[in-house]
C-alpha cells in the first residue's frame, strides 16, 4: 500500500500541473493517510473528505438524493458522484472515491461484504470499478485502499510529463 503512495509521491513531487483529492467512505481516510505519509505531499494533495454518512455524501460531495435512494451509497453511481464532488469541492485535477461494505454488518444479498466501488475522476474522464474483496473488515479496507492508490498511480501516469 505504501509502495503505491510512494510511487505517487515520486511522480508528483516537483510537479505543479497535477493535484489530488480523495472522497472516502468505507476506507475512512486511509487513502489520504497513505498519501500524506510522504514528505512533499502537500505540494499536490489538496485534501480528503471522509463522507461516511449519506447526509455527508449529499451535503458535502453533492451526491444526489436520487442516487442515494435508488442506487444506494454502495454503487457505481455514488462512487462516481463522490469523485466528481471531491474534484469540485477541492478543485483538484484528479480525485479518487471509495464506497463499499467492509462488514461485518450492512450486507445484503445484492451487496455482500467486500463489495467496494472505486472511482477516479479527472478533468476529461471518469472510471469506476467494482471489486469484491475477501476477508474481515480490516482486510477489505486495506485491499480497497491499495486498489484506490493503484488506480491513482494509473491515472497520474496517463497525464504523462509535466506541462510547465
Query: At the third CATH level, what is the topology name of one domain?
Result: Maf protein
Helix content: 40-55%
What is the CA-atom radius of gyration, in angstroms?
15 Å
Largest sheet: 5 strands, mixed
Rounded to the nearest angstrom, the distance between the terminal CA atoms is: 30 Å
Ranges where pLDDT stays below 50 over 5 or more residues in a row are none
CATH architecture of one domain: Alpha-Beta Complex
What does this molecule look like?
The protein is α/β, with parallel strands linked by helices and 164 residues long. The protein has a domain at 1-10 and 18-112: Maf protein, CATH 3.90.950. The protein has 6 helices and 5 strands, in the order αβαβαααβββα. It has helices at 2-12, 30-36, 54-59, 65-70, 76-90, 137-159; strands at residues 20-24, 45-50, 94-100, 115-121, 126-132. It has a 5-stranded mixed β-sheet, with helices on both faces. Helix 1 packs parallel to helix 6 (137-159) and helix 2 (30-36) crosses helix 6 (137-159). The longest helix has 23 residues, at 137-159. The chain starts with a helix and ends in a 5-residue tail after the last helix. The mean pLDDT is 96.
